[in-house]
Amino acid sequence: MKTNDVILQTTTKLVFFIIFLFSIHIFFAGHYTPGGGFVGGLLTTGAIILLLLAFDLKTVQKALPFNFTIMTGIGLLLALGTASGSIFFNVPFFTHAFDDFTLPLFGVTSLHTAMIFDAGVFLVVVGSAITIIQSIGGDS
Amino acid sequence: MELLMAILIGVLFTAAVYLILSRSILKIIIGTGLLSHGAHLLILTMGGLGGSAPPVLSDGVTDFADPLPQALILTAIVISFGVTAFILVLAYRAYAVHKTDDMNQLKGNDEHD
Amino acid sequence: MINLLLFPIILPFFFAILLLFFKEKIRTQRILTLIGVVVSLASSLVLLWTVKTEGIQAITLGSWPAPFGISMVSDMLSALLVTTTLLLTLFIVIYSFTSIGEERERYFYYPAILFMVTGVNGAFTTGDIFNMFVFFEVLLIASYILIVLGGTKKQLRESLKYILVNVISSALFVITVAYLYSVVGTLNMADISVKISEVNQPGIITVIAVLFLIVFGIKGSIFPLYFWLPGSYAAPPIPVLALFGALLTKVGIYAIMRTYTLFFIHNTGFTHEILMILSILTIIAGCIGALAYFDLKQIIIYNIVIAVGVILFGASQMNEAGMSGAVFYLIHDMLIKGALFLLIGVIIYITGTSNLRKMGGLMKTHAPLGWFYLIAAFGLAGIPPLSGFIGKLLIVQGAFEAGNIWSGIIVLASSLVVLLSVMRIFIYAFWGESKVALPKTNRKTYNRLMAPALVLVVLTIVYGIGTEWLLPFMTDATDVLLQPSIYIDAVLK
């Protein structure tokens, strides 16, 4: 069946970036205010699913040439690596470290190891959710 | 408020049991979804509904909500999200192979393999 | 090294993640899996020794103070179980190299095993009731993958039911934890125990105890909640079945033992009585099933149910003999069930069927298999000096000390039924003339399948003969179970 979805496709091209940027914002907002890796990841997944709806699986794969299983793996490694870092300092697992740094452009910024963990969560959520969608959608 | 929540949870559980006892796989999956929603609301209610401020320590805030049930719910939601996604994929595959979504026909025993 | 007790959890997890990167390279996957399991096993042995020499190891994640953060606790019982888990996984993984087939290996078979081991070890080690739920889910999701992997008609059908049962029991778990939290206001298991003692276990706590029994009873397959087990466990291939049969129900049993010795100890006249009656009924139901079937897999699967009943019966006596018998029997059962499943896997490989009526006369062609099967069968039934004997002896002794003469006799009688059921396999499969021509099998494959199974049988013999030497470890495990204050002091130091 050939459908004319010019409006959907054009809007999607625009909206995708808005959702994606918003998800990045949510991700960084995560530590002291609502947000974080999981929600950010879900938003990004939502954006990619919108792409999948507007275009087909092949086009999206060409536009985003990632292996999403590998992405899940990298995310898990990041999360586990951050948590295991504490083993080398002989403090309990998952102990998180943070400090204020003065960065160019941003000024005084508070940096946490928890953020690297959250980045891992972000990648796991996107990777696994898209893998599931692909495995259902790829068949029909 | 607790009473209202209790009734709501009860309604959710009732609907969940009804759906889980039906024959179509898809309805059963929706039922498990409702069941876990009910369980999550139950955690929230059981943790106590009091507390008006978010559990972030700042000056002058004494009446804050218990953060633990919220953390538990978040974890439980993530898990039920993953499991539901998995069952959906599985149900789809089972449907493709067995050509039916009727649990009665999926009973099966050793003679029918 | 204060993080030592986490290594048997982190290492399998780490290797499971690594394996995700080598989807198509089966050789690399096998080597990495082997390295991962061996390294984890080594760490768990170190842990076992540390717990033996320095007492209970406890850590609270994230450097939070004890009742607030997630505590991980490794006492002798959990260290023993973790070590046994990894030991079994090692043999089952080696067995899988030859038997599971490349198609499954390519679709994340080894990562799923390692994720499951992560969950099992985590559930054995955690000291936080909600964290236990999380680890249960980790092992369950991995087991969902394992049970459906391969996607045959039967697997798809049975795994749907398996998943539904477990999803419902998980929801019940969450509900129960919510109730418990509303009563005691804490999730740390040591702290829960303290709080329950302070209020002296009112009626609502007893209700929660029964709810926990239902939740863990579904996972651990006690009567009448074992209905899902025979169908689901028969669907996946043998190595997965061995893994499930040896490990998964034991997690449920461990959880019952832990909660019923740590939390609900003030009203044992009610809670432990129920546990005892249910375990006796479990034994009887398992015996009926084990005698009723002519299918190799089903007979051994019903033997899992019997063992669950025996172990919980020992634990429900709440005295020294019964409890140490339960611990002895728990470890024994993990080893012997692993060995038996691998052996019947070999039989199924040789004969090409799991139906007893279609086999016979294997003794002429495969004598060593027959003799080792016989040893394993005697071990399962508890013939001295093999491994099942001492556990059952202590359990029955515990029952007599507690005054439960009749139920003790039922446990003894169940040994006879167990012996009969496994001897039936021996008689039908190994004696007589072969009824149908054996399918052509590769001698090399046969040897490769036999090797891990034989080593496992030898291990169970060592376990039986070395009882005297293992006794100090078992005593340590039993002491913690019978005196919760040891556990509490170690966590809330």
TrEMBL record, chain A:
Membrane topology: Multi-pass membrane protein
Cell compartment(s), UniProt: Cell membrane
Keyword Transmembrane: yes
Primary location recorded for the protein, binned into one broad class: membrane
UniProt superkingdom: Bacteria
Transmembrane segments: 12-32, 38-57, 69-91, 111-133
InterPro entries reported for this sequence: CPA3_antiporter_subunitB, MnhB
Domain annotation Na+/H+ antiporter MnhB subunit-related protein: ranges: 7-130
Pfam families for the chain: MnhB (PF04039)
UniProt KW keywords: Cell membrane, Membrane, Transmembrane, Transmembrane helix
NCBIfam families registered for this protein in UniProt: PRK12573.1 (NF009223)
UniProt record similarity statement: Belongs to the CPA3 antiporters (TC 2.A.63) subunit B family.
Name used for this protein in its record: Na(+)/H(+) antiporter subunit B
Organism (species): Sporosarcina quadrami
TrEMBL record, chain B:
InterPro entries named among the record's database cross-references: CPA3_antiporter_subunitC (IPR050601), NUOK/Mnh_C1-like (IPR039428)
Family: Belongs to the CPA3 antiporters (TC 2.A.63) subunit C family.
Entry membrane topology: Multi-pass membrane protein
PANTHER family reported for this sequence: ANTIPORTER SUBUNIT MNHC2-RELATED
Source organism: Sporosarcina quadrami
Record protein name field: Na(+)/H(+) antiporter subunit C
Subcellular location: Cell membrane
Membrane-spanning ranges: 6-21, 28-51, 71-95
Keywords of the record: Cell membrane, Membrane, Transmembrane, Transmembrane helix
Automatic annotation (TrEMBL), chain C:
Annotated membrane topology: Multi-pass membrane protein
Highest taxon listed in the record's lineage: Bacteria
Residue stretches making up the NADH:quinone oxidoreductase/Mrp antiporter transmembrane domain: 127-414
Location within or outside the cell: Cell membrane; Membrane
TM region positions: 6-22, 31-50, 70-95, 107-124, 130-150, 162-184, 204-228, 240-262, 274-294, 299-315, 327-350, 371-393, 405-431, 451-471
Keywords tagged on the record: Antiport, Cell membrane, Membrane, Transmembrane, Transmembrane helix, Transport
Protein's UniProt keywords contain Nucleus: no
InterPro entries, per the entry: CPA3_Na-H_Antiporter_D, NADH_UbQ_OxRdtase, ND/Mrp_TM
UniProt keyword annotation of Transmembrane helix present: yes
Family the UniProt entry places it in: Belongs to the CPA3 antiporters (TC 2.A.63) subunit D family.
NCBIfam families: PRK07691.1, PRK12663.1
Protein name, entry field: Na+/H+ antiporter subunit D
Organism: Sporosarcina quadrami
